[in-house]
Write a structure and sequence with these properties.
This protein has helices at residues 9-24, 30-42, 46-53. It is mainly alpha-helical.
Length: 75
């Protein structure tokens, strides 16, 4: 069982949004985005959520100049 604090719905939404931003910046493929968003919504703990973004740069609050739109089924 994963260790860590229980994740809230807001935590899951925040990570899903962050993953979509990284997809828009070209850091994730559509398949990787889909897998990670599914895992974010299934995550039970904050540690599971952190693992989904561990290989991505922090500070993605700044929108990239050119963004790709997330696939319709992941919005």
């Amino acid at each position: 069982m994963a260790r860590g604090l229980r994740a809230s719905d807001d935590d899951r939404e925040r990570v899903a949004k962050l993953l979509r931003e990284h997809y828009g910046a070209g850091r994730l493929s559509a398949d990787d985005l889909s897998d990670r968003v599914d895992a974010a919504y299934a995550a039970c703990t904050d540690a599971e959520l952190a693992e989904l973004t561990a290989d991505l740069p922090a500070g993605s609050e700044r929108a990239p100049l050119a963004r790709r739109e997330a696939p319709a089924d992941l919005k």
